[in-house]
Amino acid sequence: MSLSYLAGIIPESRYRSVRHYHPHAKQLRTHNKQLIIIFHIEGNVAIVDKILASK
Fold it and tell me: What confidence tens digit (pLDDT) does each residue in 35-45 have?
């Protein structure tokens, strides 16, 4: 399985603050809930737009 396939399962974010980075942005919270990864899919590649510290 590729990362882009697994990232394709995650739905697009409905939050405007996340979509600010890309119109089809998705977000993923890490296991320890300390980071939020904002990314989007282009073709066969998952592109990370921003990594934020969770509040």
Answer: 999 999 988 88
